[in-house]
Amino acid sequence: MKEQTIRQKIEQRMDDLENSLKMQTHLKEPTAIGDLLESISKFYSILTEDQREFVQCARLAVLEQRRWTAQDS
After folding, report:
1. Of 2, 26, 36, 62, which residue is least crowded by CB atoms under 10 Å?
2. What mean pLDDT value characterizes the chain?
3. Claim: this prediction has a pTM higher than 0.85
4. Where are the chain's structural domains?
């Protein structure tokens, strides 16, 4: 089986984060989403500006226990 590149891992985690936020998982399981955010944040230096902004918005939603809406994405 072919191993994923770092970029592919980041993209997969970003997709997982977006899907989890859309399903409001961060309201029910903030620790799980926090762990996912940490697994993405360790690559912060190679994230795109859009990815960094998305991660920051996701962190805020988790911290404030705020519902994720389409305009947040």
Report:
1. 2
2. 93
3. yes
4. 6-72
